From TrEMBL:
CstA N-terminal domain segment(s): 4-382, 394-539
Protein known as: Carbon starvation protein A
Keyword annotations of the record: Cell membrane, Membrane, Transmembrane, Transmembrane helix
Entry's localization field: Cell membrane
GO CC annotation: plasma membrane
Chief location of this protein within or outside the cell: membrane
GO biological process: cellular response to starvation
Domain of life: Archaea
InterPro entries per UniProt: CstA, CstA_N
Pfam families membership: CstA
Transmembrane segments: 6-22, 71-92, 133-156, 163-181, 187-213, 225-243, 249-270, 279-299, 319-343, 364-389, 409-430, 468-490, 496-514, 526-545, 565-592
Membrane topology: Multi-pass membrane protein
Keyword Membrane recorded: yes
Length: 609
């Protein structure tokens, strides 16, 4: 049998070549220069524009981009189509497409005052293109918040210890923010103390797990779990019947946290929390990778670290789904993800201390997420196929397979499983509240300055631009999507929307480069953009027209117990997928016309329509 270590070796090889060679070329290509003043220094306001030390910002950026998708996606793809297609898409696609996408999104934002990709494309193709991209991004953000909040709730339900540990490190982050930015105390000693305390929070979680409602029969919590509410109140929780009372109850708590965290100054929670949690993430991902090497060479793991999955299950896989195009939207984060362009141009560009930091943070950060995807694929390769599907399959395999890896260091399986669950939660929480913050930026740019002619319209604009109401609206919509109980159907739609957003971010970078210099080559961004546009549009059309419209409505594929709500949900997904495809095609056409105009008439001014 093939050993898991070869997954790690293959990924590290291609990633090393990409970072040492291609990223260096890209840094010269976009002319990074530390003598330039970054937006963080130029517009420093203590709220959004805050110059940050490279390790702090790398921790924030990595924590924000590495959500649950690079864990769920590779595990699902490995089980459906085999570990070889999943590994190839991660090992080759990440350095040539995903890392390029993140780097040029960050670099482009640096050249445009730290503004978003929507603002950037608007500079060159006009206000109409800007609004279309912003609406696309905003709709994608809602899907991100909904899906990630759900996965955090599932983790908290499966591992109450992770819930307690998460609260501990959030509290520590608030204190650390005051320590660094208000008291201006020493960075290195403070880091040592607070990072130690974060790992101490793991011990607290193991000893004092928290659940909101009792566990269902047959799936008991650990004996020491503290249950806050009795089962008599479970019937009052929306979606308790479909998701389970405890999972359903955690969702509004997580969304409330995300809304509050998204409006706080970045120094108060976002920066210190992401920096501290990054040590958990580095320990989880790096520790698992090293554990694979140690366990393979020394044979110290609790079981052999070999791949239990087949290398290839055929084009239609084990679930009857075509490898092309669905593999490429199933593994989104981990290879290429449009959400990263919103992080890079939404928060990271506003905190970059010097331009050269864009290479390790933008390009290198995405490689780090690829390593997480490799670890996730390795966990399911060790654990093999278990019951369940999608998120239900991913979580237990990530925790149990990861605990087998960590057992190479002598860590007990129970402790290792809880730690890996906490690692997953750390990724998810940071991505969730960062997504709400980014959604605020999108909405503010869509609405603009409140200047409508009527009092009513001005009030509506003020609601849209107010940070508190803006965040609340996003979380309420996300909650409505998840609380319906139809969360499983959101995953492929999220994957398609996310990948299509990546194509549009690459389109934005290509338009920027074409307008910047008529002699700039457009292959590095243009080829990935064309490939992702083609693949993702085919995938969304497959999901909308074949899987939903034809199989469900035409052939009557709905389950007998499915009611009108299920039919409305499927119909809404069809409409949303087609709207996203229409927006993308329109933007690609507008961008193509701009590039052609610039190439044919060098020096042409940006559009102002």
């Amino acid at each position: 049998m093939v050993q898991v270590i070869w997954l790690v070796v293959a990924t590290l090889l291609t990633f090393s070549i990409g970072y040492l060679g291609y990223s260096r070329y890209l840094a010269q290509f976009v002319e990074l220069d530390d003598s330039n003043e970054t937006p963080a220094h130029k517009y420093e306001d203590g709220q959004e524009y805050v110059p940050s030390k490279k390790p702090v910002l790398l921790g924030h950026h990595y924590s924000s981009i590495a959500g649950g998708a690079p864990i769920v996606g590779p595990i699902t793809a490995g089980v459906v189509w085999g570990w070889v297609p999943a590994l190839l898409w991660i090992a080759i696609g990440n350095p040539l497409m995903g890392s390029v996408h993140d780097f040029v999104s960050l670099s482009g934002s640096l050249r445009h005052e730290g503004k978003s990709i929507g603002y950037i494309i608007g500079e060159y193709v006009g206000e109409r293109g800007k609004k279309m991209l912003l609406w696309f991004a905003f709709l994608t953000i809602i899907l991100v918040v909904a899906v990630f909040a759900l996965v955090v709730a599932i983790v908290f339900n499966a591992y109450p210890q992770a819930a307690t540990a998460s609260f501990v490190y959030i509290a520590l982050a608030l204190i650390f923010g005051v320590y660094l930015y208000q008291l201006d105390l020493p960075f290195i000693p403070g880091t040592a103390v607070f990072v130690t305390a974060v790992f101490g929070g793991v011990w607290v979680g193991l000893n004092f797990p928290i659940a909101l409602f009792p566990a269902p029969e047959g799936s008991p919590y650990a004996p020491e779990t503290i249950v806050l509410f009795g089962s008599g109140l479970a019937s009052l929780v929306p979606a308790a019947g479909t998701l389970g009372a405890n999972t359903a109850a955690w969702i509004p708590v997580i969304l409330l946290y995300a809304a509050i965290a998204s409006v706080l100054p970045v120094w108060m929670l976002l920066q210190p929390r992401d920096f501290l949690s990054s040590f958990l993430l580095y320990a989880g991902v790096g520790g698992a990778l090293v554990a694979v090497v140690v366990g393979t060479l020394l044979g110290t793991s609790s079981q052999p670290l070999v791949i239990e999955l087949e290398p290839y299950y055929g084009f239609m896989g084990t679930a009857g789904l075509p490898l092309f195009p669905l593999l490429f939207v199933t593994i989104a984060c981990g290879t290429i993800s449009g959400f990263h362009s919103l992080v890079s141009s939404g928060t990271t560009a506003k905190q970059l201390n010097k331009e050269s930091d864009a290479r390790p943070i933008g390009y290198g950060g995405m490689l780090g997420e690829g390593l997480l995807a490799t670890v996730a694929l390795g966990t399911v390769a060790i654990a093999g196929v278990t019951a369940g599907g999608g998120i239900g399959r991913a979580l237990p395999n990530f925790a149990s397979g990861g605990s087998v890896m960590l057992s190479s260091f002598g860590i007990p399986l129970e402790v290792g499983a809880v730690f890996m669950a906490l690692v997953l939660v750390s990724f998810l929480l940071t991505s969730t509240d960062t997504a709400v913050r980014l959604g605020r930026y999108m909405a503010e740019e869509i609405v603009g300055t409140p200047d409508a002619d009527t009092v009513y319209m001005r009030q509506m604009q003020e609601v849209g631009t107010n940070r508190y109401s803006n965040a609340a609206i996003q979380c309420l919509i996300a909650y409505a999507l998840v609380a319906s109980g139809s969360w499983a159907s959101l995953w492929p739609l999220f994957g398609g929307a996310n990948q299509l957003l990546a194509a549009l971010a690459l389109l934005t970078a290509t338009v920027w480069l074409a307008n910047w210099d008529e002699d700039k080559q457009l292959i590095s961004t243009g080829v990935p953009m064309a490939l992702m546009t083609l693949i993702t549009i085919i995938a969304l059309l497959y999901l909308a027209l074949y899987q939903n419209l034809y199989q469900q409505f035409v052939l009557g594929g709905f389950a007998p117990e499915a009611g009108i709500v299920a039919r409305i949900s499927v119909a809404a997904q069809i409409v949303l997928a087609l709207v996203l495809v229409g927006l993308a095609l329109s933007l690609v056409w507008i961008g193509y016309k701009n590039i052609r105009s610039v190439r044919e008439r060098p020096g042409a001014a940006p559009a102002d329509d």
